Amino acid sequence: MLVSRKIAGTFFLGGGIAFTLGSLVYPSMLGVQKVSSAPDRIIARPATGPLTEADRDFVVEMRAAGLWEYPVGQMAVQKGTTKAVRVAGEHLIAGHGALDAVCRGVAGELGITLPNQPSPQQQGFVAQLGAATGKQFDTDMATLVRATQGQILSTIASVRTTTKNSLIRALADKTNDTVMDHIAIVEKTGLVDFDKALSRSADPSGLPAQDTTPPPPVAGQTQVVLPPPAKSTVPSGAVGGK
Asked: Are strands 17-18 and 12-13 parallel, antiparallel or unpaired?
């Protein structure tokens, strides 16, 4: 079963930041072009199966998710006040380090340009958590990660059940395993504010596309890599390993 838990949809963090994983318009070439949303439109026919706009957007979204959750994991390891929070940080780092390698591989095979920065909204998440300290950081981190993973699960489920591309299916499976691990590990901190995490699950809309779309990389810019930790204490099976 793809999704095995009841999860949150949206988190509203002070300052009016609402999490949205809507359809991104992110073409295979450099740059972002605003076109009408057509998630079922086939944009390429590689040997691994037809590639739709939704498939392409999924790869970009998963890359962007790692670009903000990975540094949040580093924050949790560095300034978490409990062992459980620091362990959650280790899982975020290990999970997104492994997932990033798969995501970059899939993008390379399918000719999809990946961002080197998360969206402005996601950059706001990092800034908010970067400014938080002590128990406030612990609680905000656990609640935000728990809530945003719910939106990602919805995206995974939609793409996994509709894609005809085998590489996208494999990425969706890997992402699902990683996200479920992250949900479980932040819940184990005992710090998730479930009321906040669940309060805005009905409608995540409201932000303009430029806030939720990661910027394309600068031409000639070296691709950012999220390296797995050299000595990880996280079991491989906990982050999607078999």
From this structure: antiparallel
Q: How far is Cα 8 from Cα 145, in angstroms, rounded to an integer?
A: 10
| Chain-centre distance for alpha carbon 174 | 12
pLDDT digits (tens, 9 = 90+) for 197-228: 776 443 355 667 777 889 889 888 899 999 98
Alpha helices in 111-188 (DSSP H): 120-131, 134-162, 166-187
Residue from 44, 26, 36, 80 nearest 217 by CA: 26
CB 106 within 8 A of CB 163: no
pTM of the model: 0.81
**Kind plus residue range of the DSSP H or E element containing 51:** strand 51-52
**Can you say whether residue 42 is alpha, beta or left, with left for phi > 0 and alpha for psi between -120 and 50 degrees?**
beta
